[in-house]
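pipeline stage [seq->struct] | target=ParB/RepB/Spo0J family partition protein | organism=Gluconacetobacter aggeris | residues=627
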Amino acid sequence: MTTEFREVDPRTLIPNPNNPRTSPPNEERDRRFALNIQIVGVLQPPVVREQADGTLMILYGHRRVRCSIMAKLKVIPVIVRSGDEKLDDLAAGSENMIREDMSLPDQWRYVDRMRREKNYTERQLCKALMVTPAYLKRLSLLAGLHPPILDAIEIDYGPDERALRVIARTPADEQRAAWAEIWSETIADDADPAEYRMTEDEAKDFDWTDFAHALEHTQFFARDASFDDVLARKHGIAWEEDLFAEGGQDNRYTVDRERYASAQRAWIEGQLGEDDVLLATNEYGQPMMEDGMRRLWHAKEGPRAFYLDSRTLKVGCVFLERWTPQPGAGAAMGASAPAPKVRSDISGTGEKMIGQIRTHALHSALDAACATAEPWDLVGALLLAFCGDNIAVQGDPTGGFGKPSARNAATAALFPEGVLVRDPELLRTHTMAVLRSVANCDVSLHSGSGIAAQLLGVLFDADVQMPNMAFDEFLKTFSKAGITTAVEAEGLAAQSTGKLMRAALIAHVGEGRWVPEAAGFAQSTATWKAKLAKDAHHAARLAVHAEDDDGDQDEEPSDADDGEDLVSAEDETASEDPNAACVSAAAEIDGAGEAFDAVAGRLRDEFASTPEARAHFDSHVMFVRAA
């Protein structure tokens, strides 16, 4: 094989008809790449082959050629290769899959074509593409998917791996029928709903778990049904007998999920009284209480809430209470009337922007410290990171279907033979990569790292990485009182409107840098100290309660004592998140019974603002009650 270096007009290059990338390019990424090429040029020349007529066909590097044309370059460097053409397709695929991931459908189409047309074995493909046999098997799942589902995967809104396995196991005609049923009312009269391609907005909200449930061949037994044979016949359920099941029980079953669910819902509707309700469930099959409701854990009468478990299709029922907070409702328990709410200086939108900007600054600081970080700093940083609120690791952007997380990549590189590779540079690189994958400053109950990431910012001096935040989009998140405080802190006079004060602050900062104290990292140390003090105080109080319990096991607590403990428990947890508030309160008022339900309900109404948060809160209350 020989190679030759040339400079040619990129417009004269011929695309490869066997280019493994067939998905439409991302225009925004191409635009950024073209701007980069205008500045630094083409750093890696595309590889081409000269045809019999003298034209040059691209083997790999189509994107570089396309973006060079967008950048209006007259000539670009290319490498002209001659030699065995049999390896061209294999080289093109490995170039794309190793250096920049193709979409999963494109990867599968390429691998499938290499098997069929070139007769490459699995071992050859794994070696050339640097993937495992398990990865190729996962790719083969795509072979069993209905084409519109492949389209959704190509735009990054396809099913997760569990749903993908369920769908891929389902015969193609059943996938097609289910797809047609979903979109039958969406398409035009003359179109085939089975071939409907979702828009990006539709794909974002599509429930793949529910779609997989509908396809899954699960046996739904008559013994688990609330409905009787009359409703079964009305809804067209034809029972089959499970001849291999244990005797002495009703072993009739159906695999018709929709008819079974319909009959269950019909039974529920027949049970609903005037004050009863039917609730939706979350992904775990638990009922999601609506606003103004709370679950009564030990009640045996009253309004009922029915729900249908989305996984098992079993009917559930709990008792509930309508909850309408009244001004001064806590007075009977010694609590003062709630103070009127005052708008904070920075809105929730502003807090989220601060979190995103902090995250960027923190990651820049980690990059800057990568080459010089002291080993003990790294150990301390890892300890901090893994004490973050987002562990066990949720929100890690480095993992996914067929894609190892930063943690897995690090352990594979550092323990290739099961023994640690003691390479300081390699250890630093992968430690920082794992820190970046785990630590973030996002404002999120479930995936944000919380105060731990802010302390990492202090450790690695992320404040110097913070950008100028004196820009209109961010300043608009300030209340008038907040922006007034901000401009006066800069020595500027307050103005009659927030708009004038924003403009004055932006003009005052100019090309400099302005970061509000609340957005920086340094202020987190005071918050951390306060948290430690509060935790220590709370632990001491629990220890006192434990000693009292040990000394007075036979003494029954009075109603007055119960109320007093409830008030202190509520005060102690008022500023925490719903889960911590619930657990902390429950630890102090264990056995308080109905009084516990009252406090839990008040905490739930204050902290759990969405159906998902309410369901999560209720699950913690149920756990504490069971304990």
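stage status: PASS
auto-comment: The chain has four domains: 3-194, 272-323, 348-522, 598-626. Residues 348-522 form one domain.
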